[in-house]
Amino acid sequence: MNEELQNKLKKAAAVRVADYVKDGMIVGLGSGSTVRMLVDELGRRVQEEGLQFTAVATSILTATQAKKLGIKVVDLDSVDSIDLTIDGADQVDSNFNGIKGGGGNLLWEKIVAINSKKIVWVVDESKIVDTIGAFPLAVDVIPFGSQHVLAKFNQAGFEPVIRKDQAGHVFKTDSNNIILDLHLHKITQPVELADELIKTVGVVEHGLFLNMVSEVVVGKESGPEVLVNPNLG
Ligand SMILES: O=C[C@H](O)[C@H](O)[C@H](O)COP(=O)(O)O
Predict the structure, then answer these.
(1) 109 is an active site residue
(2) Residue 112: phi, psi to the nearest 5?
(3) What is the ipTM of this complex?
(4) Which residues are the active-site ones (predicted)?
């Protein structure tokens, strides 16, 4: 899929998923390019249509964008729970298992997600796959001793690569951690893998979000389509 078409599908899905946000809600705002389009649309609705909601952001970038657009942003610790979180994803399979973290925001995204009553993802159709894993799996790791975590992952055959930013420096997350991208190609046992990763000392969190999402709004050429998770929907 070319980038222009992909952006068109992301935009249409982002506008559709904005309808989920109602007056008075506390809304978790995810991160990434698709959520950026969602936040633009929500900002427009706040300014032009008087939509009123309170946001909790999953990254410094999203918080900055939302505030600039006049959206009220508060800290996660200042709310009891979040009514709805809308986020993007890198890949989603038919069991509603997904990979997130392409932008390095998976830790804050997962903390916001587990404190949300409902999670909805917004993606374009290129992200819907039979088996997740072709997209590298981001793992958030404490910098101290991270070469040893890297060595362990190498031994396990996970093909880890330390993420670098565009300038070639080691990428730092909003919590000042680093990201190891695992090139797993196909993840056939996501639950077992998630368990193994989280038990590795030095690992803070990983980008496997398993059966957490209630609905996925998919931007398709025929128009946005909503997939409902029968276990959570
Ligand atoms: O860390 C980044 C997030 O998990 C994003 O939500 C994910 O990478 C999807 O981003 P995009 O909408 O740019 O494809």
Answers:
(1) yes
(2) -65, -40
(3) 0.98
(4) 109
